[in-house]
């Protein structure tokens, strides 16, 4: 019978062998399987079912298809082994067929070719005021971390481990998630309540036994932030228009009131009056006859006292 120490050593040995044969790591993120692997690493992409399969097939991110009949399907599982390269990175599709149910079951598997430490989700959309977890992990098996640190988009950088709990948090908002562990290569932080200051690019850094820090980046966004910004801008624009209209109306009312109360009247409009030529007809119209003529006399000439030059010209022989 194995004693406790021998059993403990045996479990560590099995875990070590498992980590060597399966260096890549598999995560279940929101019901979607994610495989983190290194370049040129042999990985196994599995298609699983709780019921016996008739067939299963894989769809490569490029669109290429791989199919397996019931001869290659064992216990509700079929496997596609590949030597992972950058061309294999992306979303794989898994199609499962069963006799009892004619409609296929389709599952998605995300394969990412990464470095020694990688973000579990490079792009995260959170809800304002709700908690969210940002995490990185080692990709070559369960390798312990000497430290874990984060650089937020706004604010001071910090390091974190399992001693930082929700009750004893950093700045009252950052704590280490209870289901993570530095011993198995998890570098993670939970934000208690997401605020706009948390939006942006986060950098996670992890120290490995090689004495170097390995980093990756995570982009955090808030759900509906763009729509809210657009609505706010529209509201500001509409408010500005309403204020301008109100000020214009008040100005017009004040001007009308000032004019009504006897304010400074506007300057009179100058109308130019032109001379109306007298009709050329010898006999003036009746209306013209009723208008009295005004004769302005000029000083008399020396030769004819009391007679103006105009009268002199009218009496001169023709």
Give a quick set of tags describing it.
17 strands, 4 helices, 20% helix, 318 residues, alpha+beta, Ig_sub, Immunoglobulin-like, disordered N terminus
Structural write-up:
The chain has 318 residues and is of the alpha+beta class. Among the domains are: 14-113, Immunoglobulin-like (Sandwich), CATH 2.60.40.10; 116-234, Immunoglobulin-like. The chain has helices at 4-21, 225-260, 286-289, 309-315; strands spanning 25-29, 32-37, 42-48, 55-59, 65-68, 77-83, 90-97, 105-113, 117-119, 123-126, 132-138, 147-151, 158-159, 174-175, 186-191, 200-207, 213-222. The chain has a six-stranded mixed beta sheet with strand order 1-2-8-7-4-5, with no helix packed on it. A five-stranded mixed beta sheet has the order 10-17-16-12-13, with no helix packed on it. The longest helix is centred in the last third of the chain and has 36 residues, at 225-260. Residues 1-23 form the signal peptide.
What topology does this entry show?
Elements: H1 4-21, E1 25-29, E2 32-37, E3 42-48, E4 55-59, E5 65-68, E6 77-83, E7 90-97, E8 105-113, E9 117-119, E10 123-126, E11 132-138, E12 147-151, E13 158-159, E14 174-175, E15 186-191, E16 200-207, E17 213-222, H2 225-260, H3 286-289, H4 309-315
Parallel strand pairs: 2-8, 10-17
Antiparallel strand pairs: 1-2, 3-6, 4-5, 4-7, 7-8, 9-11, 11-15, 12-13, 12-16, 14-15, 16-17
